[in-house]
Write a structure and sequence with these properties.
The complex is a heterodimer. By secondary structure, chain A is α/β, with parallel strands linked by helices. Chain A has two domains: 166 residues, P-loop containing nucleotide triphosphate hydrolases (Rossmann fold, 3-Layer(aba) Sandwich); 72 residues, no CATH class. Chain A is built from ten helices and ten strands. In chain A, the strands form two sheets. Chain A has a six-stranded mixed beta sheet with strand order 6-7-8-3-9-10, sandwiched between helices. In chain A, strands 2-1-4-5 form a four-stranded antiparallel beta sheet, covered by helices on one side. In chain A, strand 9 and strand 10 form a beta hairpin. In chain A, helix 3 packs across helix 4, helix 3 runs parallel beside helix 5 and helix 4 packs across helix 5. The longest helix of chain A is centred in the last third of the chain and has 18 residues. Chain A is globular, with a radius of gyration of 19 Å. Chain B has one domain. Chain B contains nine helices and no strands. The longest helix of chain B is centred in the middle third of the chain and has 39 residues. Chain B is mainly alpha-helical. Classes of the chains: A alpha/beta, B mainly alpha. Chains A and B meet through helix 2, strand 6 and helix 3 of A and helix 5 of B. The structure holds adenosine-5'-triphosphate and magnesium ion.
Chain lengths: 267, 262
Amino acid sequence: MSADSKNVPMIKMSNVKKSFGDKHVLRGVNLEVQKGESLVVIGGSGTGKSVLLKNILGILEPDEGTIEVDGEVTTHVRGRARVELMHKFGMLFQGAALFDSLPVWENVAFGLIHGEKMSKAQAREIAIEKIQAVGLSSMVADLFPAELSGGMQKRVGLARAIATSPQIIFFDEPTTGLDPIMADVINDLICQSVKELGATALSITHDMASARKIADKIAMIYEGEIIWCGDVKELDNSGNPYVEQFINGRADGPITKHSDYARKKTA
Amino acid sequence: MPIAFVLNFLESIGHSLYGLFASIGRIFIFALKAVSHILMPPFFARITLKQFMDIGFYSLPVVGMTALFTGMVLALQSYTGFTRFNAENAIASVVVLSITRELAPVLAGLMVAGRVGAAIAAEIGTMRVTEQIDALVTLSVNPFKYLIVPRIVAGTLMLPVLVLIGDIIGIMGGYLVSVHALDFSVGSYLKQTYEVLESADVISGLVKAAVFGFIVTLMGCYHGFNSGRGAQGVGAATTNAVVSASILILIFNYVLTQVFFS
Ligand SMILES: Nc1ncnc2c1ncn2[C@@H]1O[C@H](COP(=O)(O)OP(=O)(O)OP(=O)(O)O)[C@@H](O)[C@H]1O
Ligand SMILES: [Mg+2]
């Protein structure tokens, strides 16, 4: 399969479906991310963007469809093989998900110490480097996550995601809760991770400025399917009324006509 | 109408029975998975050591107090009861046998279920709800090895130690009341205690303690790991951990007693 490695996408989702009870969140997602590419997924709140990432990571198991990572089918890989597979990934969770029993530096160094079996002293050095790279002072290294602000936690989560220099990095709303200047620092950092490490990135954001800066390609999810996917340069001439409404942030348009928004208004 | 009522009633019984068996099955699979991870490397030694402290050392005051007052009240109660039959001499045997065989392991198990089982369920449940368990997975660490194995190992090994200490403190409590409040002679009380006690009594209590330690930590981990969403989910997980551990301790206590002494 991976003989012709240039054309094998790093991530490929084919007809992935996922429901919680009778709530059909993903209804047949088809998505490809090429090696070294940065794809941004946009879409309304609660449309299943975080669920999409968790399906690829194996935290959630799809009901139907297949997921391929670097040419290998990983849809139902579990146990030790999944742990091995996880070495390829880094993930920034929407809520940061820092380990609150560990100080900041051990959070960042966690993958290095336990995943890559690095010595603690060496891991701490790298951790402090990464903490500085996300715009935090090395003073925070010995604080506990509960002592940090939400935006600072987010940046520690980012440092943790990139600490092991993974091949594939997922960013779930990396700039939410940050001031505009810090948001741009993070955007630069993401671009840098992708370009310098040659990583493949899949990000989720509501922040269109950030999306335009970090994306090579943009995909829009709506009602459990990818309804548009294209180059970031084509974003303004997508010809898709849903995309147009979303990127211009208009209250009137096809999205608000058909979905929950309309139901909520009448309720 | 009455028939529909009866059918509804039977149906709801059927549903809860089905639910009960389903959870027993899930807990059993969870336990098997935990045990299989105990045997396979990698091991997290430092984290396990920390659990030994949390579960073992910090439970000492609670278990010690429980044992002390249980021993004391046992002496007092048997005195008031036994004087009616002129059987005061049996007090030392009653204290030492009840403490080592029954009261120290069961009461320590129940106290630890309240202290440790609740704390484990709340901590692991919060980690589930705030996606920290998912984060562990993405960092190539198996949550069973990192979170669950250290707690179960510490609980199973530390509870017997706690109970052994509880045995000593409980017997001492009975001795203090008998000698200082009830005017028994030091020599005859100690002689009786020594004569009646057999190693099987103590060992059976310690085996019970190991089983209870396993039950408490398993229930804490299981309910925390499968916690529902939000603060409400964590609250329910904590309650379920304590209640199910307590009931299982009482059931297994009966079963083990039957096995040991019949
Ligand atoms: N574990 C779960 N159990 C039940 N329902 C879930 C679960 N995880 C997500 N959902 C539901 O799936 C839907 C999509 O959730 P998701 O978190 O993916 O949204 P999102 O697109 O990331 O939204 P946002 O932009 O607000 O983060 C929501 O309606 C949510 O309630
Ligand atoms: Mg989300």
